[in-house]
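re: the backbone from monday

yeah here it is again, tokenized this time
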């Protein structure tokens, strides 16, 4: 059965009656998903739909990133490095998609955005609790951020819980300790409610693994996966900052931040600082 008159015939075994069967649309709850775009501009501006879908799809991907990073942390808790890295690998692919999405939003010109920006009030991506949750799981914790979510009990509770729990990186070092690696106590006993900062006590162990990677391949691979994860995150932050600069210049953000200046500061935040610092030491 081929193509005739540029029309492909429907094969006889393809299901077409969904009166009593689950369909693609019902499985994905498309009625709910596709009705969730509610522009607030009046009169409704053509480009607001792009703005809404950009941010909604980002939140969907962040939901999956959080799902996978929590699963990776759980795998480290069970000393399953390979299973953890499978989750990290998936996150890396999601990150590439998220970064490339900025090119779609960048088609929104300053004039187009200015025609509906005032209708957004104080809503801002800064208020994304899922983004904060991902940052917390990766170790970039900031208890001050919880005040932003006091009006959303569920989001506040999630972030408060993640603030008190070990990060993905903490779980990794604890896993290595259980596997017999000489992980310093300073890495195992740190206050996990604070942002992770450079621990020079870890550098000798990291350097040893890099210089003897054939005998410690799983750990060596984990180091490089973490470096990829951080680099991808920084690329996302950079594209975010540049897209905002392209769209609103140096105006303040709708949520009250300084805008581009605030986003630039995020580029100085790190997740796995020793894995970059050790590069200065290797080969000496």
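seq for it, each position gets an aa:
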């Amino acid at each position: 059965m081929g193509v005739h008159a540029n029309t492909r015939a429907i094969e006889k075994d393809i299901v077409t009656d969904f009166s009593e069967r689950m369909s693609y649309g019902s499985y994905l709850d498309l009625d709910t998903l596709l009705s969730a775009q509610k522009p607030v501009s009046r009169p409704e501006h053509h480009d607001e739909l792009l703005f809404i879908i950009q941010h909604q799809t980002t939140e969907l991907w962040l939901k999956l990133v959080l799902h996978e990073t929590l699963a990776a942390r759980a795998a480290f808790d069970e000393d399953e490095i390979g299973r953890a890295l499978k989750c990290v690998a998936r996150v890396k692919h999601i990150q590439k998609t998220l970064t490339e999405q900025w090119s779609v939003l960048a088609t929104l010109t300053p004039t187009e955005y200015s025609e509906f920006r005032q209708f957004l009030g104080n809503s801002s991506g800064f208020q994304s609790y899922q983004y904060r949750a991902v940052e917390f799981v990766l170790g970039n914790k900031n208890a001050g951020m919880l005040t932003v979510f006091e009006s959303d009990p569920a989001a506040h509770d999630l972030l408060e819980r993640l603030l008190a729990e070990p990060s993905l990186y903490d779980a990794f070092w604890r896993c290595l300790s259980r596997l017999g690696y000489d992980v310093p106590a300073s890495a195992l006993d740190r206050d996990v409610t604070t942002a992770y900062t450079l621990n020079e006590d870890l550098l000798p162990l990291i350097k040893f693994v890099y210089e003897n990677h054939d005998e410690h391949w799983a750990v060596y691979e984990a180091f490089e996966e973490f470096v990829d994860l951080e680099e991808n995150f920084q690329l996302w932050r950079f594209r975010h900052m540049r897209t905002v600069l392209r769209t609103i210049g140096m105006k303040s953000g709708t949520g009250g931040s300084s805008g581009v200046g605030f986003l630039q500061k995020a580029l100085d935040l790190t997740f796995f600082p020793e894995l970059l610092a050790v590069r200065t030491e290797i080969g000496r």
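The chain has 13 helices and two strands. The longest strand covers residues 3-4.
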